[in-house]
Specification:
The chain has 313 residues and is of the alpha/beta class. The chain has helices at residues 3-14, 45-50, 57-66, 87-99, 117-133, 164-188, 218-230, 246-259, 280-294, 303-308; strands at 27-31, 69-74, 103-108, 144-147, 193-199, 235-239, 264-270, 298-301.
Length: 313
């Protein structure tokens, strides 16, 4: 039984209303470059585009459909000179994605962007805006910029070295970065959407990692920050990693679901035997339950790990 048919059967049996119906393609996933890995990542972007990976680009596009993925967040790196992947190959891959109804988002994920936003702006211009502008065929274009720039990569936001005041500063840096990227896209590429990944602890006021200023209240400070997010991005992915219980996963994103009025809210779940889901089947089962029971779109982390464990079929 196909996963899509199984979804429809379960829908009938449980009489649960599913917002997205029985159509596949609501999920997202992250696809990474792992340059220098030993052994090489057989499902990494560089290996696939170089022809040394376990799949072709067509195979990757088909595997996305098997996982009911309708949006790919790809970290392609520099696409110039002798770098892999070459820009024209990425354009052809975007065509393959669009032919399958999958949108293509360019993933930017270096923590240093929080302290050097100009470097991110330059990369978005060259790798997305100029890339799209050079190609009259819209099927070759990137549809969105996707930011996975995580304050937790800095010591002040890690639990072992936590400094809640300094962590708040990093979270403010993220908001400032988002404002800059949104203004760039509005000015240079208004048809390109903007999405951002957020950790599930950012909304916590009491006992969390962030010192939300008490004037007038910590809740007001938190809400104001999220209002800036809501007005600047097209969607957020709440990274509910470390959870395996479906109710806990949804609860990790429930504040955003209830309080963001403009941005699309998705929940990210993680394939990691040590901290999250041990195999693809348990991860996709949780995704199905989140879609059926809570009507929330799901992102699967990551495509590399999913393919390494045999994919979704």
């Amino acid at each position: 039984m196909s996963s899509n048919l199984a979804k429809c059967v379960l829908l009938v049996l449980t009489s649960v209303s599913l917002t997205a119906g029985c159509s596949p393609g609501d999920r997202g996933t992250w696809w990474y470059r792992h340059p220098g890995d030993v052994p090489a990542d057989a499902y990494g972007i560089e290996e696939v585009f170089a022809g040394t990976g376990a799949l072709t680009t067509t195979g990757v596009a088909d595997a996305l459909l098997d996982c009911e993925v309708g949006r790919l967040y790809g970290s392609y790196g520099p696409m110039s000179g002798s770098n892999i992947p070459p820009a024209n190959d990425v354009a052809l891959f975007n065509q393959e994605l669009h032919a399958r109804g999958i949108t293509s988002q360019f993933l930017f994920s270096e923590p240093s962007y929080l302290t050097n936003p100009a470097s991110l702006i330059t990369k978005i211009v060259t790798r997305v805006i100029d890339f799209n502008a050079a190609r009259p065929d819209l099927t070759e274009h990137f549809d969105a910029v996707h930011l996975d720039v995580e304050p937790v990569q800095f010591p002040e936001c890690k639990m072992a070295t936590l400094d809640p005041v300094a962590c708040h500063d990093r979270v403010q840096d993220l908001l400032s970065l988002i404002f800059q990227v949104r203004n760039l896209l509005l000015d240079r590429a208004p048809k390109v959407a903007l999405y951002v990944d957020l950790h599930d602890w950012i909304d916590i006021v009491e006992g969390g990692r962030i010192f939300w200023p008490p004037a007038p209240t910590p809740e007001f400070s938190r809400n104001t920050w999220f209002q800036g997010i809501d007005g600047s991005v097209d969607g957020v992915s709440i990274m509910a990693y470390g959870h395996t219980d479906v109710a806990d996963i949804f609860n990790a994103a429930s504040w955003e679901v209830q309080n963001l009025s403009t941005a699309d809210v998705r929940v990210g779940i993680n394939l990691d035997a040590a901290t999250s889901f041990p195999d693809v089947a348990s991860m996709t089962t949780a995704a199905l339950l989140l879609e059926l029971l809570y009507g929330v779109p799901v992102d699967l982390h990551s495509l590399n790990d999913t393919l390494a464990l045999g994919g979704c079929s």
